[in-house]
Amino acid sequence: MDISYGIAKDIGLRDNMEDEHAIYARPVKGFFSAEVYDGHGGGRAAVIAAEMVTPCFLHLWNEELSKNPEEQREIYELLREACIEVDNFIVGKGVASGTTLANFYIVHERFFSVNIGDSRVVIGTEDGACVLTEDHKPDMPGERSRIEAAGGVVIRFGVYRVQGELAMSRALGDAHLKPYVIAEPYIVEGCLGKENDYVVVACDGIWDVMDAKEVMDITRSYGDAQKAADRIVSTATEYGSTDNKTVIVLDLRRYLEGLRHRKMKIINRIDKVVDIGKLL
Asked: Closest by alpha carbon to 107, among 187, 27, 36, 6?
């Protein structure tokens, strides 16, 4: 798979680097992933997630491919199951920390953006840039009502926090904040188009001080994935970000040059929390 990428990281002014990242490629399956995990309360949950989420998905996918086509589950269902299984593993092992997840998956000409928490995936388009993820913040109406219905509280200490502690409403791990903080992913499924030149996956150490347009403008100005990743991190630092910072830049131009269709197409948006809420 002719996909080049660059990865840049910076500890910021924190005592420890709690971010993790992963790249997985299975060319025979037409599969590629770029993944960022932003840990909090320690780095262990992020390490486990980076090592387990996609291998778990690939195992589930192999099992499905052995079935008759009409019996196979959708890829987005397997991605969701992998997230839930790894969350259960982290909690079951007594790991105290938690982590966000922002993963971009390519399966031939299809893509899947998966996120839990406030790390983001941005894809380049003819109109500029499209944010494929959805931040999971405690003050979002749907998230707040879900937390309060489960017996939790959302308190503002600088920003809105679950139980006055965590500034996001969904994450892997965080056993002491269950059932208020959940690991239900937001998934976007779509078809790539030739307009999709770059993808940027990054944690909030980038997005707290930069928006999608600026990040994509920098990426395009360099035309080189590694140089762009380095510049995005240095720019976030110049803007005052003191947090851990991790960014992955994918260059899809060669990979997609043979496509006939120009425009990206969003096929599906999956959020089981929202789906359940509509039924209540």
From this structure: 27
